[in-house]
Backbone:
């Protein structure tokens, strides 16, 4: 593989590092948290900017509203909690006070997906990308590693409008460039290939790279693209690749309904019908377990990406 | 008191606007709008430090107002137009296709004077608290005001916001509750009793001011009292006793006019009871 894991790190720490940098560079950035400072790695920002942090307590609905209010007066609030509470629990507040009102709030959604692990299904939201991408005005970002989450956090502050920034709990390979410039809505070509396109997001990007390696050993040339922004989708990058390969696999830590695969299926069925396989969770809630065990059990691991690629190639 | 008489005349025109807007589309919420006409008239024409002609979203250096019970949009639209935010004739577009005067207030149509969408209830206190925090961060000494229905206080988010505003010492903020005792399904006492709002807010750490909301003199006095309580480390709430439908006798004291428009004859009756003072739109 042409990418090197520089050491496993959690994406939430990438968020914390990005927020800390924003604290030093942009005086309008403020932060809110619903009793999960440590989990979201906000400590450093708070230590350096105590007056620009607002503890919201275990009251997420109010936190979203307060964040909306803070934008009136020019602030750029990052409102952080677990992804399930940052999307499903506060859907109406996000819908009316952020998305419809087009407020410059960044919803920082940590511990997304199955890899939250042992806490189980109440906390493992796998519907959040779907919920958030359905909202007009909302940008949905799901970066793949520590470095990219840090860069995405900084980019989110530069974007004017509501953003849902999704990241996770476990330590995962950190392989993207430390000094990368994150462009919202611009997919990243990771591996060029000719037989099949693998479109991956979040923690599944590394798995997709591993899968491409294994496919290469089997004589299959896979192109791997990191779709870090689910919305707006980089339709040009997707269509260009698919026109070349004629087969697609999507990979994500989310339900099939409403996720990246669903966005790609919509795009391709309208613009360029192409055989498609989705590596995603099929209409199930999660359960307690270790992150890697869960990815295996729910069929969203490297091996599943490899199998999906072989399946889709038969349909070409 | 020329000022009082002048405000009463404006409120009369605002009431005409409300019933005419709702009648024209046979759609909207006249009852709560009429009940809040005196308060919003006093606020926009006497109390607020604001700049209608040079409206901007951030409102730095001005007082801000947030309407949380967005369904009383007719009274807000009337007061905004009459105080110069947008042309009065635009009131005729209320609830029509393509209008900036949507059924419930929105920023999506860029209507001057509106800073957040409201309609789904219970969100405005949080927003106002956030805007008040932004004022503190900006060193802006102006105040933030909000209006809420009493039925709206049944929403849990209101009490999250009430806890937050007190815990964070948001003392540059005056919330007002339109305490008319009525909601869609009937009296609040029957639908979901709100007993002892004063005790509830005081227990949450707020300073409570009680005010009669359908007499301009009492409204001005009550808001003055509330303003005197700002800056003391606690948020301030005005419990404003009003009568739903106030100013139109057959709409008063009943929940039946919450979201029903008057017919032609009822409109004529309502207009007879509220004289034209500034000129109908």
Residues:
């Amino acid at each position: 593989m042409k990418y090197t894991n520089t050491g496993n790190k959690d994406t939430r720490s990438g968020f914390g590092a990005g927020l800390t940098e924003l604290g030093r560079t942009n005086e309008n950035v403020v932060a809110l948290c619903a009793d999960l400072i440590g989990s979201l790695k906000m400590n450093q920002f708070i230590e350096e900017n105590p007056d620009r942090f607002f503890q919201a307590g275990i009251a997420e609905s109010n936190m979203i509203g307060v964040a909306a209010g803070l934008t009136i007066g020019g602030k750029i609030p990052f409102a952080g909690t677990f992804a399930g509470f940052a999307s499903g629990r506060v859907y109406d507040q996000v819908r009316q006070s952020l998305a419809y009102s087009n407020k410059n709030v960044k919803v920082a959604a940590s511990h997304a997906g199955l890899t939250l692990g042992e806490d189980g299904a109440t906390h493992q939201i796998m519907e959040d990308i779907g919920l958030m991408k359905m909202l007009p005005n909302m940008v949905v970002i799901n970066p793949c590693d520590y470095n990219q989450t840090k860069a995405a956090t900084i980019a989110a502050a530069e974007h004017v409008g509501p953003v849902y920034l999704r990241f996770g709990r476990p330590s995962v390979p950190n392989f993207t460039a430390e000094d990368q410039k994150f462009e919202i809505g611009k997919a990243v070509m990771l591996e060029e290939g000719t037989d099949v396109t693998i479109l991956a997001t979040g923690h599944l990007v590394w798995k997709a790279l591993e899968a491409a390696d294994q496919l290469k050993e089997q004589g299959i040339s896979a192109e791997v693209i990191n779709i870090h922004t689910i919305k707006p989708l980089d339709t040009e990058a997707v269509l260009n690749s698919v026109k070349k390969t004629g087969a697609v696999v999507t990979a994500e830590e989310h339900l099939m309904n409403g996720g990246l695969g669903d966005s790609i299926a919509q795009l391709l069925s309208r613009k360029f019908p192409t055989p498609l396989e989705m590596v995603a969770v099929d209409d199930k809630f999660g359960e307690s377990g270790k992150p890697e065990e869960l990815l295996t059990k729910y069929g969203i691991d490297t091996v599943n990406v490899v199998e999906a690629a072989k399946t889709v190639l038969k349909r070409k | 008191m020329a000022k009082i008489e002048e405000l009463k005349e404006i409120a009369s025109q605002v009431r005409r606007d409300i019933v005419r807007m709702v009648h024209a589309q046979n759609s909207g919420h006249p009852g709560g709008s009429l009940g809040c006409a005196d308060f919003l008239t006093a606020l926009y024409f006497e109390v607020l430090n604001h700049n209608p002609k040079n409206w901007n979203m951030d409102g730095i250096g001005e007082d801000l107002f947030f309407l949380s019970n967005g369904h009383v949009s007719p009274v807000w639209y009337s007061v905004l137009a009459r105080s110069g935010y947008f042309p009065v004739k635009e009131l005729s577009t209320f609830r029509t296709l393509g209008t900036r005067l949507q059924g419930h207030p929105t920023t999506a149509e860029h209507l001057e004077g509106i800073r957040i969408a409201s309609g789904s209830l219970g969100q405005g206190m949080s927003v106002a608290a956030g805007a008040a925090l932004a004022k503190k961060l900006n060193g802006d000494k102006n105040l933030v005001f909000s209006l809420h229905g009493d039925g709206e206080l049944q929403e849990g988010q209101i009490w999250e916001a009430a806890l937050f505003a007190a815990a964070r010492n948001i003392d540059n903020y005056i919330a007002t509750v339109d305490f008319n005792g009525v909601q869609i399904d009937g009296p609040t006492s029957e639908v979901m009793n709100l007993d002892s709002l004063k005790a509830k807010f005081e227990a949450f750490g707020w300073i409570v001011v009680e005010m009669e909301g359908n007499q301009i003199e009492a409204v001005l006095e009550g808001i003055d009292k509330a303003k005197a309580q700002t800056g003391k480390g606690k948020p301030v709430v005005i419990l404003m006793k009003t009568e739903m439908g106030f100013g139109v006798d057959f709409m008063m004291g009943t929940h039946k006019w919450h979201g029903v428009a008057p017919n032609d004859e009822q409109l004529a009756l309502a207009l007879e009871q509220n004289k034209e003072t500034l000129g109908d739109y």
